[in-house]
Specification:
Layout (H helix, E strand, L loop, with lengths): L7 H30 L3 H8 L1 H20 L3 H18 L3 H33 L1 E2 L1 H5 L1 H18 L4 H18 L28 H33 L3 H25 L5 H21 L3 H15 L2 H12 L2 H33 L1 H9 L1 H8 L13 E2 L2
Helix pairs in contact: 1-5, 1-7, 1-8, 2-5, 3-5, 3-14, 4-5, 4-8, 5-13, 5-14, 7-10, 9-10, 9-11, 9-12, 9-13, 9-14, 9-15, 9-16, 10-12, 11-12, 11-13, 11-15, 11-16, 13-14, 14-15
Membrane topology: Multi-pass membrane protein
GO molecular function, one term: transmembrane transporter activity
InterPro entries: MFS (IPR011701), MFS_dom (IPR020846), MFS_trans_sf (IPR036259), MFS_Transporter (IPR051788)
Length: 394
């Protein structure tokens, strides 16, 4: 009798890719959606606030949900995300659009935690290194999705048509993410061969908050380029719209490449070094981008910033996944993911306020200094137990 065996690592990559396809193409679809629904800028902005408003509580709830549902969590939240994407495309009023965005935001937050919890469980179960590999797929998908969605709109495709295609791809990824094997690792992380507790496996919640704060600074830096990089190129270096869009794209390319490199060679480097060097290089790259006197130098700075910061958050999550017992892992991952996400949310208004006070280049320079905080946070990975022997994911 035929039996579905799931998509393995391919299923996790599929979720990361389909998630990135939506968020990468979202900005290109918004003008058409705004026009179709006759929304003012104020109305659109208020509706878009539904995404983070739903994502944060969903992230907090997904940890306990993953603890109960285990391997079923990721397919479930991914399926809900696909439904939300489809409903956004079909929304015919502002109220329906806002409600759909609440669903998208909640499911997206669920994917943030569900995917990370699944990666941590698989690493513990199979002894594989997966975080950087899977996290590299999302920014790469976003780089491809942004111009693809723009091209589709240019050729006459409606936002509904584009979102329907994305929703189908998300649904396929939810099916591929089905894992029949379960999450029980061969040797529980909290025990040694003789059943003794691993030193540090009972670290207090404060340790998770500290590591989450390091991740928050890294994501604050990341979102500053995504949201303000193109604006900086236009305002300070007179770049046109097409060239300006290359700023965030360069950062995303560096982010994906850096994670692929870390997946390939990162096992040879201590976790604290990956975080510290990543923060220092990321901060230096962002500083070059902020101070650049030409577009090529700015793009080079953004590329280096992405490559430098690439391993920081995946490494922190992997450290947490290895450092807590299986029964606490999903909640721990939820805590670190949610605290880190706070930096992502704080970045746009923070940079905007700084830019209004001291100018955008200086504001980005201040954000670049966050790399020093990330670098200083490298030794804090010692709050979790040292990682066991690992092998490369295939």
């Amino acid at each position: 009798m035929w039996r579905w065996r799931g998509g393995g690592v391919i299923g996790l990559l599929a979720v990361a890719v389909s998630w990135g396809l939506f968020w990468g193409g979202w900005a290109a679809l918004l003008p058409g959606i705004q026009e179709e629904l006759h929304l003012s800028d104020r109305e659109l902005g208020l509706s878009l606030f539904a995404v983070p408003a739903a994502a944060v509580p969903a992230m907090l709830l997904t940890g306990p949900l993953a603890h109960r549902l285990g391997r079923h969590t990721l397919p479930l939240v991914t399926g809900v995300f696909g439904l939300g994407v489809l409903v956004v495309g079909l929304a015919g009023s502002r109220a329906a659009f806002t409600a759909a965005l609440l669903l998208v935001g909640a499911a997206s937050g669920g994917i943030e935690v569900g995917l990370n919890a699944t990666l941590a469980a698989w690493e513990a179960r199979d002894g594989l290194r997966l975080f950087n590999k899977v996290h590299a797929a999302t920014p790469l998908a976003m780089v491809v999705a942004a111009p693809a969605a723009g091209l589709a709109r240019h050729l006459g495709a409606s936002p509904t048509a584009v979102l329907t295609v994305i929703a189908v791809l998300v649904g396929v990824s939810a099916v591929l993410a089905v894992d029949p094997r379960g999450w029980q690792e061969q040797a529980p992380a909290a025990e040694g061969r003789a059943g003794r507790a691993v030193p540090g496996s009972r670290r207090p919640a404060a340790a998770l908050l500290v590591l989450g704060m390091v991740g928050a600074v890294a994501l604050l830096m990341e979102n500053s380029v995504e949201q303000w990089g193109a604006i900086h190129l236009v305002q300070q270096l007179d770049a046109g719209p097409l060239l300006a869009s290359c700023g965030p794209a360069a950062y995303m390319t560096g982010l994906s490449a850096g994670r692929m490199l870390t997946q390939w060679r990162g096992v040879r480097v201590p976790d604290r070094v990956l975080v510290s060097v990543g923060g220092a290089v990321g901060g230096a790259g962002l500083a070059v981008g902020a101070a650049a006197w030409s577009v090529p130098w700015a793009l080079a700075g953004y590329l280096v910033a992405g490559a430098g910061l690439a391993p920081v958050v995946p490494t922190l999550l992997a450290v947490v996944g290895r450092g807590v017992p299986a029964e606490r892992r999903s909640r721990a991952i939820s805590t670190v993911t949610t605290v880190s996400y706070a930096g992502f949310l704080a970045s746009p208004p923070l940079v905007g306020l700084l830019a209004g006070a001291v100018g955008l280049p200086t504001a980005l320079g201040v954000v670049a200094a966050g790399g020093l905080l990330v670098a200083a946070g490298g030794p804090l990975v010692g709050l979790m137990p040292a990682r066991p022997a690992e092998r490369e994911a295939v």
